[in-house]
């Protein structure tokens, strides 16, 4: 594969991103990104925070974006991805609860959870999202693989990348997060 073919495939996938509300109504990607920006800015203006969760490459995206949102966007943001923390929670409560437990403790009504899972089937991510919903948080999801994955159905706004290749889904999830942050920075005049 050539570099141009690689980026051509990625560009095609970006054009096929699906987005929808939690009631199932579809929304075009650009409008969904604008809605997420509005949601984050509104909640941040009220002192609410962003929380990111993900496994593997999605955990790396979560950590990276939490830093960028607070450093560049001046929005309170965190990711529950610290290795000692993950092993402690996993050992004490099981890996399925690794994100639900901190969300139960740290989330406040009106906070925003960004749940990232390539497959959209990771039970710990689904449990984290469920805990966020119970705490009165707003939820943004990013998933891929099968269109009927459970994560794509539970957020207030949901993004789906139509690929079953981890690298493609992860790269596009990362760019979606960066795009949202860039829109926020543009609106702040930065």
UniProtKB/TrEMBL annotation:
Source organism per entry reads candidate division WOR-1 bacterium RIFCSPLOWO2_12_FULL_45_9
Record-linked Pfam families: SIS_2
Please state what the protein is called. Answer: SIS domain-containing protein
Provide any one GO MF term from the record.
Answer: carbohydrate derivative binding
Q: Which Gene3D superfamilies match?
A: Glucose-6-phosphate isomerase like protein, domain 1
Organism ancestry: Bacteria, Bacillati, Saganbacteria
Q: Where is the SIS domain?
A: 36-190
Look up the coiled coil feature and give its residue ranges.
none
Q: Which domain of life is it from?
A: Bacteria
Q: Which GO terms describe its biological process?
A: carbohydrate derivative metabolic process
């Amino acid at each position: 594969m050539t570099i141009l073919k690689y980026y051509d495939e990625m560009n095609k996938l970006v054009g096929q991103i699906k987005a929808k509300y939690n009631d199932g109504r579809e929304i075009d990607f650009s409008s969904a990104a604008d809605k997420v920006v509005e949601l984050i800015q509104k909640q941040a203006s009220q002192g609410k925070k962003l929380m990111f969760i993900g496994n593997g490459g999605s955990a790396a995206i979560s950590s990276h974006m939490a830093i960028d949102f607070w450093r560049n966007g001046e929005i309170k943001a965190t990711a529950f991805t610290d290795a000692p923390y993950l092993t402690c929670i996993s050992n004490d409560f099981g890996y399925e609860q690794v994100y639900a437990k901190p969300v139960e403790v740290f989330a406040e009504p009106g906070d925003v959870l960004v749940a990232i899972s390539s497959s959209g089937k990771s039970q710990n991510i689904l449990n984290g999202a469920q805990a966020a919903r119970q705490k009165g948080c707003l939820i943004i999801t990013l998933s891929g693989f099968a269109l009927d994955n459970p994560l794509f159905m539970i957020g207030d706004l949901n993004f789906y990348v139509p690929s079953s290749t981890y690298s493609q889904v992860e790269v596009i999830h990362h760019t979606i997060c960066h795009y949202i942050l860039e829109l926020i920075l543009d609106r702040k005049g930065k």
